[in-house]
UniProtKB/TrEMBL annotation:
Main location group: cytoplasm
Name this polypeptide is given: Microtubule-associated proteins 1A/1B light chain 3C
Bilayer disposition of the protein: Lipid-anchor
PANTHER family per record: MICROTUBULE-ASSOCIATED PROTEINS 1A/1B LIGHT CHAIN 3-RELATED
Keyword Cytoplasm on entry: yes
Protein's gene: map1lc3cl
Keywords tagged on the record: Autophagy, Cytoplasm, Cytoplasmic vesicle, Lipoprotein, Membrane
Lineage of the organism: Eukaryota, Metazoa, Chordata, Craniata, Vertebrata
Protein family (similarity comment): Belongs to the ATG8 family.
GO cellular component, one term: endomembrane system
Gene3D superfamilies: Phosphatidylinositol 3-kinase Catalytic Subunit, Chain A, domain 1 (3.10.20.90)
Domain of life: Eukaryota
């Protein structure tokens, strides 16, 4: 992969495409798949331990719970069962895992029509394990 392509991959989705393009994309997706929700999943910018996903766009059924979606992401990332994975909805909220994606979409979708979810490990929210002393 060329260095430019790699840097584009690291850039957040909103910065890669203009608002009009993103809105057109959502309209196209929603017309083709009316029973699915367009979701963008990206790694937290300061995350260093979790790998990048091979894709950022997902089509998710309304009735799928956030917990089920988390399991799907854990499988895609190929996480060890002992590794933690947190989801931030709209870069600000840790939603209830039993909430349906339809509920979350209706509450937190962006103005462009996508639902943005950021994934991170525990270390992002507190001190790193190396900095923390023994218990």
């Amino acid at each position: 992969m060329a260095p430019f392509e790699k840097s584009m991959e690291m850039m957040p989705f909103k910065q890669r495409k203009c608002l009009a393009t993103r809105k057109d994309e959502v309209c196209s997706i929603r017309s083709k798949f009316p029973n699915k929700l367009p979701v963008i999943v990206e790694r937290y910018m300061r995350e260093r331990t979790l790998p990048l996903l091979d894709k950022t766009k997902f089509l998710v059924p309304f009735e799928l719970t956030l917990g089920q979606f988390l399991c799907l992401l854990r499988t895609k990332i190929a996480l060890d069962p002992s590794q933690t994975l947190f989801l931030l909805v709209a870069e600000r909220s840790m939603s209830c895992m039993s909430s349906s994606m339809g509920d979350i979409y209706s509450r937190f979708r962006d103005t462009d029509g996508f639902l943005y979810i950021t994934y991170a490990s525990q270390e992002v929210f507190g001190a790193s394990q190396l900095a923390a002393g023994p218990c």
